[in-house]
Amino acid sequence: MRVLVVEDEVRLARNIAAAFREGPGYAVDVCHDGAEALMLCETAAYDLIVLDLMIPKLRGQEVLRRLRDRKEATPVLILTAVTGATSTIDLLNFGADDYMTKPFDLGELIARARALIRRGKGVRTTVLQNGCIRLNLAEQTVSVDGQFVDLSRTEFRILEYLIHHPRTVISKLELLEHLYDCTWEHHSNVIEVHVSNLRRKLRNATDSTVLETLRGRGYRLGSLSDDRA
Questions:
Q1: Residue numbers of the domain that contains 149
Q2: Tens digits of per-residue pLDDT, 3-61?
Q3: What's the distance, CA 171 to chain centroid?
Q4: Which runs of E-coded beta strand occur in 25-160?
Q5: Which of 93, 120, 147 is the last residue of a domain?
Q6: Model pTM?
């Protein structure tokens, strides 16, 4: 999952980004003004935007309005120091999906963010199921036919993304964009290595579900078609 944090308080932005990276293991881009936020949203696909209202160049309300005007459906969680029923209604009318008032608990922020991402993908539970694969988002565990499979954080995130997109061919580039932030400079062969390891671990657990490679196109969960990433 990839998150954009828009916050002009540099230390707070850094702490939020660290919480996402060290907790659920999301890729995080950070910017400090509304104009840059809109530019980043034009060049990258995000699963969640954490947006402060009081930011320079373009206020958070204007950023949100422009995103919704161009039919951007990415969930937006607002950070605000403003309280009161009227301001809350205004935020929801602008198209916000949730909001938190400052100061806030980072643990609660992560919990709400996870819920918004699941909701945005049409998922209402913390458990994802694809055939005999069962992925528990809250516990960060994976089981296949009831047998727990030990995955690295990156392998877990790849599997989570594939399960969120059933029967869809996911390209290497798309996986890179959702696993890593804009500072990532490595080549796509890193994906091949992680997918190869993930496929091997799934095969060791069962023969009925494997990670399928479609040459020149990408990956999906499906029947056996190729032994290489």
A1: 127-222
A2: 999 999 999 999 999 999 998 889 999 999 999 999 999 998 899 999 999 999 999 99
A3: 16
A4: 27-31, 48-52, 76-80, 98-101, 127-130, 133-136, 141-144, 147-149
A5: 120
A6: 0.72
